[in-house]
Design goal:
alpha/beta, D-Maltodextrin-Binding Protein, domain 2, five-stranded antiparallel sheet, two-stranded parallel sheet, 9 strands
Length: 289
């Protein structure tokens, strides 16, 4: 009796597993057939702006649903390589995301720059008398021995860690987020205090405050960068209209800055994107025609 009961339970168990496998495979098949473009991005103000402009165009003009996922830089690139995302417009190259590109380049397609003239480094208010990273050890007390950073997975933070070592600085690099960094910067400027923050161009903070990059004579942060568009190898076959648009997508730091200012002034990112698109029909036509 025990043996028959055991056999019956085993059969029931395998039947349940079989149904579960069929259900999962069916769900995956449904997901694969869903007309949805999946885009990853990092929570930098610049990438929030560009990603929502792209999403608005894909949805409103090309007629596809869009799924946006905010992640750190590492998971964004890993997600691209694994096919979890169809595209990103947030690849900072050739320096900031160089390690991620090297790890994933066999599994992605690089469509090239969507914005040129990008820059990374350390930024201080204009009233700070220090002008170079080489001077920072002379002003440890004035800066409270701290550099205010962003999310720890960002390439900018890795470059910042290298800069601390290269210049042998007696400073702590504090991680956080873009929002926390800009809030700390604003508070310091209101009090006319000295502060160092991780910075990049384009970013709305340069329009809001009088800021300057600290000179980097040892080139720890590299030369000028661009922001690139990365897609999955099969995107052109699955969504040729989306591929064509993303391949055409290119704009200026000034144009991106306009979207960022709308967001900073209180607009939701998707509303800011649609506002900018409505004001720039010629750009839209260049991208989708």
């Amino acid at each position: 009796m025990q043996t028959r009961n055991t056999t019956s339970l085993l059969k029931s168990g395998w039947t349940a597993i079989a149904f579960a496998v069929v259900a999962v495979l069916g769900l995956q098949a449904c997901e694969a057939e869903t007309d949805e473009i999946r885009i990853g991005y990092v929570l930098w103000d610049s990438e929030i702006a560009s990603t929502h402009v792209v999403a608005a165009i894909i949805q409103d003009e090309l007629g596809h649903d869009v799924n946006l996922t905010a992640v750190d830089a590492g998971p964004m690139w890993t997600g691209m390589a694994r096919g979890n995302f169809d595209a990103i417009v947030a690849a900072w190259l050739p320096g900031t995301h160089a390690a991620y590109l090297e790890q994933t380049q066999d599994d992605i397609v690089n469509l090239g720059p969507n914005l040129e003239g990008a820059k990374i480094g350390w930024v201080v208010p204009e009233y700070v008398t220090a002008n170079s990273i080489e001077e920072l050890n002379d002003y440890v007390d004035e800066f409270n021995g701290q550099i205010t950073g962003i999310d720890p997975g960002a390439g900018l933070m890795a470059a910042s860690e290298e800069a601390v070592e290269a210049y042998e600085l007696d400073y702590n690099l504090v991680s956080g987020s873009d929002a926390a960094m800009t809030a700390a910067l604003g508070r310091a400027i209101d009090r006319e205090e000295w502060i160092i923050v991780t910075g990049w161009t384009p970013h709305w903070k340069f329009a809001a405050h009088d800021l300057k990059y600290l000179e980097d004579p040892r080139n720890a942060f590299g030369d000028a960068e661009h922001i690139a568009t990365i897609v999955t190898p099969d995107l052109e076959e699955r969504y040729p209209d989306v591929f064509r648009f993303l391949d055409n997508f290119f704009w200026t730091p000034e144009e991106m800055g306009e979207v960022m200012i709308y967001i900073e002034e209180g607009m939701e990112p998707i509303d800011a994107a649609r506002q900018w698109i409505s004001e720039n029909p010629d750009r839209l036509n260049e991208w989708i025609n």
